[in-house]
């Protein structure tokens, strides 16, 4: 792996998973099957990899665990299969972060791509009018922030490569699938056309406009370029308090552009 995530961890691809270094804690990975996400895909009867992705929530260096617990922060890692789910690229089903008991708010998520390429797709709501919709095309070393309350999913942007990313989350996270499932998915479906990703509107929502863009620099959160978000936590454990205490950053979430 060319990208250095900031601690001793390595993605595995056959089968999907992770190998932890000696000083690293982490759980046994959980696998998400195609059958478990079918209802939110464009074609619920599609064919594709049986295991769509492997996820390990709460990983890191042993010496950092107390700092993470003190700030109610969790670092998660995910690896996706290559290929397609019918006409769509491999992707997650989409959800909204449920209200976390610790802050009584939906919380944000800070993604960092390690291998492959991703579209981090997000929309303001999952009700009939989805509001603003973005698909942020990210490559290794690039960071994308999904703000509190937005529906979002992760899409493999290069179907010939495995996608791996790490993310800062709140520890008492939860997922709300209700509105996304009621609309049979997110507002825009990715489809593969001659190895390129195109997007088509989901007819179960009102008409919306999709903005496809590159990641930006999140200067308002002091996110540094060319330094892993885990290393940035090591150097300043308070940097990601906006993840676990989003209520303290309300002005920064207004009119947020990812």
From TrEMBL:
Keywords, ordered alphabetically: Gluconeogenesis, Glycolysis, Isomerase
Reaction catalyzed: alpha-D-glucose 6-phosphate = beta-D-fructose 6-phosphate
Listed EC numbers: 5.3.1.9
Highest taxon above the source species: Bacteria
Pathway stated in the Swiss-Prot or TrEMBL entry: Carbohydrate degradation; glycolysis; D-glyceraldehyde 3-phosphate and glycerone phosphate from D-glucose: step 2/4
Gene3D superfamilies: Jelly Rolls
A Pfam family: GPI
Annotated ranges, domain Glucose-6-phosphate isomerase prokaryote: 49-196
Keyword Ligase: no
Any one GO molecular-function label of the UniProt entry: isomerase activity
InterPro entries linked to this entry: G6P_isomerase_prok, RmlC-like_jellyroll, RmlC_Cupin_sf
SUPFAM superfamilies: RmlC-like cupins
Family (UniProt): Belongs to the archaeal-type GPI family.
Protein name: glucose-6-phosphate isomerase
Organism placement in taxonomy: Bacteria, Bacillati, Bacillota, Erysipelotrichia, Erysipelotrichales
């Amino acid at each position: 792996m060319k990208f250095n995530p900031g601690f001793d961890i390595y993605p595995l691809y056959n089968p999907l998973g992770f190998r932890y270094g000696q000083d690293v804690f982490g759980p046994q990975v959980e696998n998400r099957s195609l059958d478990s996400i079918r209802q939110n895909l464009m074609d619920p009867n599609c064919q594709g990899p049986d295991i769509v992705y492997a996820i390990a929530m709460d990983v890191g260096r042993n010496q950092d665990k107390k700092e993470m617990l003190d700030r109610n922060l969790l670092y998660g890692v995910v690896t996706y299969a290559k290929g397609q789910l019918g006409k769509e690229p491999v992707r997650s089903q989409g959800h909204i972060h449920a209200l976390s008991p610790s802050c009584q708010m939906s919380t944000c998520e800070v993604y960092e791509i390690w291998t492959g390429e991703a579209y981090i797709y997000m929309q303001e709501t999952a009700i009939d009018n989805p509001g603003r919709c973005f698909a942020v095309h990210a490559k290794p070393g690039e960071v994308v922030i999904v703000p509190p309350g937005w529906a979002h999913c992760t899409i493999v942007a290069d179907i010939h490569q495995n996608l791996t990313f790490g993310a800062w989350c709140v520890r008492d996270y939860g997922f709300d699938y209700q509105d996304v499932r009621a609309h049979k998915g997110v507002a825009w479906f990715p489809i593969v056309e001659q190895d390129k990703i195109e997007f088509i509107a989901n007819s179960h929502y009102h008409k919306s406009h999709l903005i496809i863009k590159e990641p930006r620099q999140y200067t308002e959160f002091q996110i540094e370029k060319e330094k892993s978000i885990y290393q940035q936590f090591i150097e300043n454990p308070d940097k990601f308090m906006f993840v676990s205490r989003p209520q303290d950053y309300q002005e920064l979430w207004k009119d947020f552009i990812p």
